[in-house]
Amino acid sequence: MSTLKDEVEVLRKIPLFAAMDPSKLKLLAYASDKVEYEDGQLLFRQGDVGDSAFIVLSGVADIVSETGGTEVVVAQLRDHALVGEMSVFCDIPRSATVRANGRLVALRIGKGYLLDLIKEFPELATRIIRELAFRLAKTTADLAASERAARH
Amino acid sequence: MERNLLKFIWKNSRLKQVWLLFVIVASMPFYFFSLELPKQIVNGPIQGRDFDAIDATQPFLRLTLPYGESMFGREIELFGGLQLDRIEMLFALCLLFMAFVFLNGWFKLYTNTYKGKLGEEVLRQLRYTLLDRVLRYRVARFRNLKGAEVASVIKDEVEPLGEFVGDAYSLPLFLGGQAITGLLFLFLQSVYFGLLTIAIVAFQIWLIPRMRRKLILLGRQRQLQARKLAGQVAETVDMAPDIHVNDMSNFTRARHFGLLQNILDIRFELYQRKFTVKYVNNLLMQFLSFLFYLLGGYFVITGRLDIGQLVAVIAAYKDLPGPIKGLIDYDQIRLMNEARYEQTIDSFRDDGLIAPELQSMPQQAVPRLTKGFDLDHVKLDDETGRTVLENVRLHVRPGDRLAIVTHGDDAARVAAGVLAGALVRLVQPASGTILLDGKPLEDLPESLTGRRVGYADANNYFPAGSINDNLLMVLKNRPADEKQRSSTAKRPTTAGMLNHVPPPADAEWIDYEDLGVEGKAGLDAHVARVLEVAGLTRQIQDLGLRGTVDPAKNREFSDKIVEVRREFRENAASLGVEGIVQSFHPDLYNSQATVGENLLFGTALDAAWSPNELPRNPTILSILDRNGLRTAFQEMGQRIAEARIELFGDLAPDSKIFETVADVTYEEIVRLKEIVGRLKMAERQEPQRQEATPKGKKGPQKLSDSDQLFRLAFDYCEAQSRFGVLDAETESKILAARNDLRQEIAGMEVPPVFFHDPDRYNPTASVLDNILLGRISSTVVDGKEKVLAAVQELVARTGISDGLLQAGLNFEMGNGGRRLSDQQRQKLHVARAILKKPDIIVFNEVLGAMDAGGRREIMARLLDGPLPGEPDFRPGFVVVLLDDELAERFDRVLTYSNGAFVETMRDDDDPQPDVMLDAAK
């Protein structure tokens, strides 16, 4: 059984939380539920209302895009990835389905808790903004690359 | 009812009063003998009179014919008696004396018991009559009636009457007899003194009632004030929440005190007058003795009366004051009770009572309705007396579906409500006629209207009792067994009393045949169908899951639950709940349960073993000591406190985290900080005495600081808090302690704990806990929902849903039914209206507490066919709608527009001129 301390260690490895105060990480770990999924179980489905964000502790999660009845695995998340935060911040439906690929252990942070934690610890907000910005930059770069590839 | 108390008592107990009098008179000779005997014992054998010779004998029990000498000129000896010597005579007389003592005691015992019983019988009859009146009041009267005041009259005010009944006739006759005898003796001794005595007594008889008039008046006032107090106290209890939210407690106190002061004032004046009367009474009697001595002495001295005569007069007079005083006291009690009785009767006046015939139990089957309602020129008033509908003409046949649409308009709702109430006699029409099946509704017995017309409105009151009791109550119209019914045939009544005895309430009152169900099983199925229609099945099953079942009373069901438990465990995978529930296993530590739960491994049957009490339970403490867990728990508590402080110690008091995440409050954290701080300080100063310093002035039960931390360990669950303070070693020690505890408890006579056992049903745990016999894992996503869904599936599959429904039906609804939600109670009222399968159902804005969607669903189900599986049951409906949209499901619609109800037929939008209903201008 993992204790809060173990969970804090795991959280610390996640870039998003790396520089956070250990006691605050502990609170984050405490606030979240550790959830276990069997192979093929869904964390959430595309189009659902988002009520929580997930941090993968161990295992692999497939990000599946469903368009017109066909499923395409667009990405795989491994240890320490944050997923599902977009719905929490923006109140938009889930943009993709996330499914456990093999046994998966994750921390689930309820929407309310995550927003409360951000209010309580502004530095966490900064971290998340930075993470999101990085992702945006990466997506923009990817998009430019794929456009370039398409032109050729 | 008889207005006079003595007449009332006589009419209701005359034979018994006569018998009582007879017994009292019959006991008198024995009493006098027992007074006479001691004199004989002293004079005879002790002083030795007539025993002059050593072996002299005297006859014992010699019997002569009374007045034999005067009739026949000589003594006629009936029995010569036994010749006994002095010692023998002493024994014989003493034994005789003892026999009379026994006999007198027995007479006393018999008459006292008889009087008591007689009083209670008449009291029961009086109370029963009063209750009968309450049941026959018209509904309108209850608007001005305070329940507590009525209760106070029926229960308390008539109570003293019971004590009076036994004495009502016997005492005055008895005392009167004594007084007259005394007077007679007096007259025989001296006519003048006799006349003197009569003059004084006559003065008393004239004076005392005059003095008492005010007394009676005060008694009445006191009774009224006491009744008012009962009403006020009940009101205060009922409005307790209002008092608190509006800061009215002080005003309420003042109001109560004012009344209490009134009662005191009245009581005080009452006492003053009562004792003044007593004083005057005594004075007059003593004045008589004064006259006797003065006048008698004067006459003796002046030689007009000889001394022997005066002594005889005074001796005769000696016996007089007792009975006279008794009579006067009796009269006082009689007057007070008379006043009390009149007051009681006055508050239960006869005006406008429903005739008893309308409530009598019918001897034949109650017919079905054929013609329905006919209203002609009916004028209806609302509660304030304002006319709201005039000239109503309306026909409702059984099978008609009539909707009354109000569009939420206030005037329309009042009018519709009054109209619906008039159909079930809750409102009396001001004029016009309402016919039901061709007969005036007013004259129809309640056995017809109450069974063939169903009614429900927004009312959601239920008396305390189980759901089942409250549901089936409406079917209990008369005992099903004809014999029990016929024994209730009325005997000739006297004095307006109910002389018949009602059938026992615990007889079978539900007539299965009339209801069209077969036996108890058929009734259960009928109830289940009704609940399904009313949308209550699932909710009641949930109550059943959360409720407890007594396996002693319900063997079959509890055995089945144990089977379901097994099935749940074995088929966890197919039910999709594998690994979600961590079962209780005697040899394993259940990580989803708290430390305390793991230690006890069962549920408490005794309050001293409940989770909160465990840390103080001496048996538990000694077992912890034995297994070396005391200090382990102490340390655990310390680390839990530290972990909590670390987690939440920096948060602001108003932080949202406390509301959402933390399982402790800010105040609790502050307290823990103080405790930990104090303990650290103490450790630094005096490490060895740390345990011995009980401090904790902030602790709720004055626990020492270390005890408070010790307690924390019991509620700790590693899987939830994950502080990492519970290691495998401690767990195995707890398991050892659990075994230890089990052995300890096995030695007790009454086990205070029911241990978790996979093969036994736990009567103290809920049905759900019995099925699971384990804890739902907190790490599984939606674990609880999945488990509940699986249990529901199992319940349906294994056929225990009926049993579960029954368990739920046994749920106690609490005071006023308040343990159920408003909407559940309203649904239950609707269910009751259908349950009796009436021919016409009147719904007046029912299910108002529900959301519109759910309400429409239920109404739609009702209109589709109220009871699935019973296509023949198609009652008529008169429904005052809350949802106008539903109108299209009805055959006929009354719409309120421009101050009048207008009827539109379905598929025909022209108003029908012959069904115009005018509202008041």
UniProtKB/TrEMBL annotation, chain A:
Protein name: Cyclic nucleotide-binding domain-containing protein
UniProt xrefs under PANTHER family: CYCLIC NUCLEOTIDE-GATED CATION CHANNEL SUBUNIT A
Lineage: Bacteria, Pseudomonadati, Pseudomonadota, Alphaproteobacteria, Hyphomicrobiales
UniProt cross-references to InterPro entries, sorted A to Z: CNG_cation_channel, cNMP-bd_CS, cNMP-bd_dom, cNMP-bd_dom_sf, RmlC-like_jellyroll
SUPFAM superfamilies the record matches: cAMP-binding domain-like
One term of GO molecular function: intracellularly cyclic nucleotide-activated monoatomic cation channel activity
Spans through the membrane: none
CC terms in the record's Gene Ontology section: membrane
Cellular compartment(s): Membrane
Domain Cyclic nucleotide-binding: 16-135
Entry keyword set: Ion channel, Ion transport, Ligand-gated ion channel, Membrane, Transmembrane, Transmembrane helix, Transport
Pfam families in the cross-refs: cNMP_binding (PF00027)
Species name: Aquibium carbonis
Membrane topology value: Multi-pass membrane protein
From TrEMBL, chain B:
Domain ABC transmembrane type-1, first and last residues per copy: 78-316
One cellular component term from this protein's GO annotations in UniProt: plasma membrane
UniProt domain ABC transporter: residue ranges: 373-920
Localization terms from the record: Cell membrane
Bilayer topology annotation: Multi-pass membrane protein
InterPro entries, per database record: ABC1_TM_dom (IPR011527), ABC1_TM_sf (IPR036640), ABC_transporter-like_ATP-bd (IPR003439), P-loop_NTPase (IPR027417), Type_1_exporter (IPR039421)
Keyword field contains Lipid metabolism: no
Name of the protein this chain belongs to: ABC transporter ATP-binding protein
Source organism per UniProt: Aquibium carbonis
